[in-house]
Amino acid sequence: MKTPIRLVSLLAAAFVAVTASGGHAVAQDIKIGTVLSATGPASFLGSPEEKTLRLYVDKINAAGGVLGKKIALVVYDDGADPTKARTFATRLIEVDKVTAMVGGTTTGTSLAMAPIFEDAHIPFISLAGAVEIIEPVRKYVFKTPQTDRMACEKIFGDLKARKLTKIGMISGTDAFGKSMHDQCLKIAGKYGISILADESYGAQDSDMTPQLTNIKNKPGIQAVVNPGFGQGPAIVTRNYRQLGITVPLYESHGVASKSYIKLAGPAAEGVRLPADALLVAEQLPKNDPQRAVDVAYKQTYEKATGEPVSTFGGHAYDGLFILVNAMKRARSTDPAKVRDEIEKTKHFIGTDGIFNMSPTDHLGLNLAAFRMLEIRNGDWKLLQAAR
Amino acid sequence: MAEVLQFCFSGLTVGAVYALVALGFTIIYNASDVVNFAQGEFVMLGGMVTVALAAAGMPLPVAAVAAVGVAAVVGVALHRLAIEPARGASPVGLIIITIGASIFIRGIAQVVFDKQFHKLPAFSGDTPFAVLGATILPQSLWVLGGTAAIVVGLHVFFERTLIGKAVAATAANRLAARLAGINTTSMMTLSFALAGAIGAVAGILVTPITLTSYNVGTLLALKGFAAGMLGGIGNPLGAVLGGLMLGLIEAFGAGYLSSAYKDGIAFVVILVVLFAFPRGLIGKRSAERV
After folding, report:
1. What is the signed CA dihedral for B101, B102, B105, B109, rounded to 10 degrees?
2. B31-46, pLDDT tens digit by residue?
3. A&B contacts, CB < 8 Å
4. CA nearest A173: which of A200, A209, A151?
5. Based on C-alpha coordinates, what's the Rg of chain B?
6. Could you tell me which of B37, B21, B33 has the C-alpha nearest to residue B96?
7. A302 and A240 in one domain?
8. Backbone angles phi, psi at B63, to 5 degrees
9. Which of B11, B14, B252 sits opposite A206 (nearest CB)?
10. Which residues of B touch A207 (CB under 8 A)?
């Protein structure tokens, strides 16, 4: 009986010693936390985000760090589970005591974590799409990707220019798909668009032909819009061609990665979507202010990881540098001071666009941050220059 | 009328996969009374191993056969390393062991392969056939044909071969089978291998249509289990019937009622059926199997 108890207390003592010394060693560093969905259904978003953050934190540290200190990145993987994300958010604040957080891969996890950072007064720069993250404005919550509402506006603008006004929608029931669906419905009237068919599918569904058959059979539909991310849109695209639907198909920025083209195969030809300039960095005109940033990030990322660049890693790049610049301007790592400086971000050229934040706009991008792309010959093609 | 046919095609294709998963449940349940929630992982392994081997340069048919082999070996390992040592455990305990095994296999797959979605090329092209205004992919015919072949093959195996009869005997009455000189443990191991192989075949057939990733197994296991319950757990014919019905209910639910509630509709139908026929559509012969 005695030995186990001694063993346990010994282990406990060792554990305390290890954690205590661990805490000491990094006390000098600036701690930046991140909770990402590096595994699970959103892994293809979370994984490039994680690689980007690690890559650029190493670069910043190698160049001397920020304010003379090194950055220590604390990474947690929530597997796209909002409950886990909440737990990790609490851990970042209470155990790791981070200065700020850049993360939150999905809308679901970001919305779950936002109140925690808001209550703890720790700046949180989200990497997820939905407009609900920053509307209504929360004092400590920011985000870098264009919103789903902007995606709807961009798509509807393009539809209007093509004189296509009667559309069908097929949306994912995940947080991203649902939020974008609601935003599109809200602003459709403004663009004179009427939505004749409104279908949905589960994020893990493997066959959408019944829903698409209904859309196909609705007379008068001139285009179809598919808000969603993950494998769902790839299957929608394949089913779309299988059923022989010929009207234009619009995807969202949620599929803006090469894996969508790969999974959907030839079915993706002719699909249009609003996306970051990053995907077509080399196609941007020479005088485009984003060109230099996008080309540099693209080349750095592709060289370091051997993977094609995706916009999701770009969101993380923007978030990290908005934060680092704010810390530099604040000359402090005090969360409240850093927050004030993040809000004052002006004319920051990121991969997502040119950021001009304000107390009422915690994103700071306008529609010019989206480019309309078309998939041609298995690659992105820039359709028009930003206005 | 064309849409009815389209929903049928859609439902039958999806349902055939549920049927194969339910068959895997049935085979293992009959032989060992274990409800094996790792059944979905066999489907995942079939798809992912084929993808990985094909990517490594192996010809597709060879990669597919190898994947079936891998899944069968994993099935045997599951029985030998996890189920057999816990032989005396309660049914609930055994179920929890299989859930643990499924999480474990998923975790390993995530590390060995990756977390991305993958596809396989369709066996005979992507050009859909038009049938009376509806369309069906050649791959769907492969799925349906493959399912039919497996069902017929299993029937022949259980009814016409000595080993098959030994497995059936083990399923019917383990003590009597052992008294008759059958090595029941080996027969159970064989059942796990068989269930693994069938799951893998399902995974390979369906990956060109549905895509695959390390975590597709969970949902398939749930749907397959529901299909098995619907048909009557322990009855191979019931498993196939339940799977096809579940697929059709989902497709018609999505098409005619509401795509947002299609999973809900399917489960309501299952509940209603189980109220009316507590042992499933084709109930099992004996209820006293504890």
Report:
1. -170
2. 888 889 999 999 999 9
3. 87
4. A200
5. 19
6. B37
7. no
8. -60, -40
9. B14
10. 10, 13-14, 209-210, 251
Q: What is the nearest CA distance from A160 to chain B, expressed in angstroms?
A: 28
Domains identified in chain A, total number: 2
Residues A157 and A240 in one domain: yes
Nearest of A266, A315, A308, A280 to residue A385 by alpha carbon: A280
Place of tokens 């539809």: A159
Q: pLDDT (tens digit, 9 = 90+) per residue, B202-212?
A: 999 999 988 88
Amino acid at position B91, single letter: P
Q: Are B20 and B143 in contact (CB under 8 A)?
A: no
Residues 273-332 of A with CB under 8 A from B: none
Chain B hits for A47, CB-CB cut-off 8 Å, are 115
Nearest to A207 among B10, B117, B260 (CB): B10
Provide the strand spans (E) within B40-133. Answer: 129-131
Q: Between chains, do B259 and A201 touch, taking CB under 8 Å as contact?
A: yes
Closest CA in chain B for residue A264: B119
The residue of chain B with its CA nearest to that of A211 is B255
Compute the distance between CA of residue B123 and CA of residue A374 in angstroms, rounded to an integer. 29
* Residue pair A294/A317 in contact by the 8 Å Cβ criterion: no
DSSP A35-62: EE--SSTTHHHHHHHHHHHHHHHHHHHH
How long a stretch of residues is chain B?
290
Q: What is the pLDDT of residue B274?
A: 81
Distance from CA of B24 to the nearest CA of A (A): 20
A208: CATH: 3.40.50.2300
**pLDDT tens digits along B59-107:** 999 999 999 999 999 999 999 999 888 878 888 898 899 999 999 999 8
Q: B2-276 has which CATH code?
A: 1.10.3470
Cα end-to-end distance, chain B, whole Å: 48
Cross-chain residue pair B209–A39, CB shorter than 8 Å:
no
Domain ranges of chain B: 2-276
pLDDT at A64 over 50: yes
Residue A21 lies in a domain: no
* CB A264, CB A238: distance < 8 Å: yes
Output the pLDDT for position B284: 56
User: Residue A71's closest CA among A46, A94, A48, A98?
Assistant: A98
> What string of H, E and C letters represents the secondary structure of A242-311?
HCCCCCCEEECHHHCCHHHHHHHHHHHCCCEEEECHHHHHHHCCCCCCCHHHHHHHHHHHHHHHCCCCCH
